[in-house]
Design brief:
With 309 residues, the protein is an all-alpha fold. It has one domain (79-301). The chain has helices at residues 2-18, 33-46, 50-70, 80-115, 119-122, 127-152, 154-164, 179-196, 200-218, 225-231, 238-244, 262-266, 293-298; strands at residues 21-22, 29-30. Strands 1-2 form a two-stranded antiparallel sheet. The longest helix is centred in the first third of the chain and has 36 residues, at 80-115. The N and C termini lie far apart (47 Å).
């Protein structure tokens, strides 16, 4: 199924590139691969079916799930399926919240285009550059900024604690968000779309990349150290994000990035800790069952749980 999606996408590119633009006067064939590639991306993500988006989510989890068996970073003594159940539950609640609030993102995008509002509407730039600038802006506001704020605002942190509660971080942890946190993230994504003036194709491209790369950097996989370090100068690598899941400060309050690593490096929130020194979970949640769904749903509202703020 996933291969069919890829085949259709690249077949579209092939047909465009293989069909040259010919000048009838000069008989010159112009191959404009870059513009055709961008046109293909815009067309595909501008009307991407919901089924394809679901396949991106499921396909990413399946791929990294299998990769974790082949090259595990941590040797967890756990039942992988049992561990994944609460994470899949929160993945479903995240999907429900996102689906319920999707109309706000669509309206924000339509309004930005209609009224010429936002960074991408104010400054003319090539399509490829608009894609890069747009992705950077959406990632900063819709991921890094809201993540940073959740660590600094006490009542928001209470909801985000559920994500950090996982004591055996793997690719299924990526979408382990309390429904309340999912609302925060949807609001900031809508804000990001407005500020950037992002067209809907760019929004869907960003969300697709965000899902897969979050699964990647949460995955319990061991990359060669040189490769992990090299990757971490551009995008958030597995070792880089694992530091954020260490159970105590200062590590917990570092490496907030989701797609791009640039924000942590520019804003002074980057931190490196060797993987073998990392212990997952939260010191303030020790003794609280991280696999009990009912317990985790109650975490933000329990007065007996300290926030350490």
């Amino acid at each position: 199924m996933a291969s069919t999606v890829c085949t259709r996408f690249f077949y579209f590119i092939y047909r465009k590139v293989a069909s040259p633009i010919t000048n009838p006067k000069k008989k010159v064939i112009h191959f404009k691969f870059n513009s055709v590639l961008m046109e293909a991306i815009v067309q595909y993500f501008g009307q991407i079916p919901s089924a394809h988006r679901a396949m991106i989510l499921a396909g990413g989890i399946a791929f990294f799930w299998l990769l974790e068996y082949a090259v595990p970073l941590m040797q967890f003594n756990y039942n992988k399926i049992r561990h994944s159940l609460p994470n899949f539950f929160f993945t479903v609640t995240t999907i429900v919240v996102n689906f319920s609030l999707a109309f706000t993102i669509v309206l924000a995008s339509d309004a930005a285009i209609k009224y010429g509002f936002g960074v991408l509407q104010w400054w003319a730039m090539p399509l490829w550059l608009a894609a890069i600038v747009g992705l950077l802006g959406l990632d900063f506001i819709g991921a890094y900024l809201v993540h940073f704020i959740q660590h600094k605002v006490k009542w928001m942190w209470r909801f985000h604690m559920v994500h950090h509660a996982d004591t055996q971080v793997d690719t299924t942890t990526a979408n382990r968000h309390h429904p309340g946190e999912s609302v925060f993230r949807a609001v900031f994504t809508t804000l990001a779309v407005l500020i950037m003036g992002a067209p809907i194709w760019l929004v869907f491209l960003y969300q697709s990349l965000s899902v897969v790369l979050s699964q990647f950097n949460h995955a319990n996989i061991k990359l060669p150290m040189w490769l992990d370090v090299a990757i971490s100068y551009v995008i958030v690598s597995p070792n880089m994000h694992k530091v954020h899941h260490h159970y105590v400060r200062p590590e917990t309050d570092t490496n907030y990035g989701n797609i791009f690593a640039i924000w942590d490096r520019l804003l002074g929130t980057y931190h490196f800790t060797p993987p073998y020194e990392i212990q997952y979970g939260l010191d303030v949640l020790q003794g609280v069952d991280d696999k009990a769904i009912g317990t985790q749903l109650q975490v933000p509202f329990r007065k007996d749980i300290r926030t350490d703020y």
